[in-house]
Fold this protein.
Amino acid sequence: MQYTINVRGRLVDLSQPMVMGILNATPDSFYSGSRKQTEAEIAERANQIIAEGGRIIDVGAFSTRPGPGAEVVSVEEETARLKRALQIVHREQPDAIVSVDTYRPLVARRCVEEFGADIINDVSEGGLTGIVGQAIHEEGDMFETVARLGVPYILMSVQPTLEKMMLGFAEEVQRLHSLGAKDIILDPGYGFGKTLEQNYEIMKHSERLLEFGLPVLVGISRKSMIYKLLGGDPTTSLNGTTVLNTIALQKGASVLRVHDVKEAVEATRLLQQF
């Protein structure tokens, strides 16, 4: 499919799949290998993502890991972490596309207006669900915020079935368009609000998401849907990640959100030969 998104006046072509590298400025992300807190660690990770062929750096400061162990971070702390991380990323990679992983409208606005973020990556489906078991009571409306900011928006579903996901996306995309949002990327939200079986059932038929005529992002990197099926833990789940990323690409994904950039880039390059 031929897709483009407008990133601060620059048209970015998604007709060939691209890779988004994860940079977690958190102490408690589910995959310990992605946790980067010192200035040197953040700089090294930003440079690694681009050197290995990533096109987007996705910066998060609030772990959305399921289950116990993830702390609830205040707006002030999340904002401070993101400000610092984005300053380092822009210093190291001034031409990189940078997305911010947040469900808070106020944080999203400051990251775009003050800290130079290009894309908002929202795992709450516009405030539909809470994170780490907490209800969302955030000031502002995320859909109105991203429409006003005029930045690309990653809309992630927390629905457990493809039917509910398609219905939800239809309503949400219509609302976003009515508000003036133009660049929307759909994320089926593997691992969010879904059982192991539901994750695979959705992936099995995920090409249906292309019916919306919008690019699709897939984030299954080292998630429990891999190691709960195969055994192990996040540290042993790279091979499973690559297999599922390859299947996602075959089903039309335009963006892969990953911890392991080199391997994902290799998967996209190999598939382009067929």
